[in-house]
Amino acid sequence: MTAIEGQVVAITGASSGIGEATARLLAERGAAVVLGARRTERLDHLARDIRDRGGRAIACATDVTRRGDLERLVGQAVAEFGRLDVLVGNAGIARIGPVSDLDVDGWDAMIDVNLRGVLYGIAAALPVFRQQGHGHLVTTVSTSGLKIVPTQAVYAATKNAVRTLLEGLRQESTDGVLRTTAISPGFVRTELTGSIDDAQVREEVRRNMDGFGIEPEAVARVVAFAIEQPRDVEIGEVTIRPTVQG
Ligand SMILES: NC(=O)c1ccc[n+]([C@@H]2O[C@H](COP(=O)([O-])OP(=O)(O)OC[C@H]3O[C@@H](n4cnc5c(N)ncnc54)[C@H](OP(=O)(O)O)[C@@H]3O)[C@@H](O)[C@H]2O)c1
User: Fold this and answer.
1) Which CATH entry fits the domain spanning 8-240: 3.40.50.720, 3.10.20.440, 3.40.50.11930, 3.30.70.141?
2) How far is the CA of 63 from the centre of ligand 1 (A)?
3) Which of 21, 101, 139, 145 has its CA at 20 to 30 Å from residue 111's CA atom?
4) What is the secondary structure of the chain as a DSSP string?
5) What is the pLDDT of residues 115-149, one digit of tens each?
6) Measured CA angle at 200 (ends 194, 206), to 5 deg
7) Is the pLDDT of residue 31 over 80?
8) Is the CB of residue 142 below 6 angstroms from any atom belonging to ligand 1?
């Protein structure tokens, strides 16, 4: 028995990259996973694959920009598995580019997914956590918010908003019910470049990801580390990046 065995974990952005790797690792270690994202064929395939390997998984179509979808995701976890121990708020997009390009639609989209999506998850999960007497919020932020670089200003701003949000929530929640964890990955080899419109920026990020990005499983192991701790131990912030990343 590991401390992960038997936990019920809902994951947003579970259809690829870090979310998918996290779902696979936690399910392998005995968690029941509730998979949220928009690409439902991917989620259905992943859920089936986990179940075929003896794990427990269900898929739940989720667009994190819709508050009701997060309520349904949390509701499905409770209906199917009896409770929700952990919400991994991982869904994210990176419509990066110079601020001077004034890609206002891209800014809105990043705020809606990266920030509002996490807030909606918190709104859906907190009442359940309070009622149960325990719960854990894990979010995927970014080293973009730690080392600010050109083209990533707005993306980094959304990630740092989440970092700030979790710290505030942590300070309001010292009664032992809630744990919060913010994980900041550097370059990870995923499909995240798919959300970059600017071809030149996309190429550059892709080159870095393919050149020295770490595998999403490395971040999944950090999620597992955070949630397997005893309930009186909170892993607040973790930075994980390729050893060669500047
Ligand atoms: N890769 C990196 O180098 C890196 C570094 C630091 C932080 N991160 C963060 O890590 C997280 C995961 O990204 P990734 O690298 O694994 O990229 P990815 O493979 O592109 O995964 C992103 C996930 O977010 C989901 N998503 C996007 N918009 C959504 C929406 N409106 N509603 C629900 N789900 C949505 C996608 O699913 P659907 O399209 O199916 O909805 C997908 O499952 C993101 O928050 C990202 O900002 C990544």
Assistant:
1) 3.40.50.720
2) 12
3) 21
4) --SSTT-EEEEESTTSHHHHHHHHHHHHTT-EEEEEES-HHHHHHHHHHHHHTT-EEEEEE--TTSHHHHHHHHHHHHHHHS---EEEE---------GGG--HHHHHHHIIIIIIHHHHHHHHHHHHHHHHT-EEEEEE--GGGTS--TT-HHHHHHHHHHHHHHHHHHHH-TTSSEEEEEEEE-SB-SSGGGG---HHHHHHHHHHHHHHPBPHHHHHHHHHHHHTS-TT----EEEE--TT--
5) 999 999 999 999 999 999 999 999 999 999 999 99
6) 45
7) yes
8) yes
Distance from residue 193's CA to the centre of ligand 1 (Å): 10
Catalytic residue at 155?
Answer: yes
CA distance 189 to 191: 7
Distance 13 CA to ligand 1 centre (A): 5
If you take atom 47 of ligand 1, which residue's CA is the nearest one?
92
Average pLDDT (192-214) is 96
pLDDT in tens, 183-201: 999 999 999 999 999 999 9
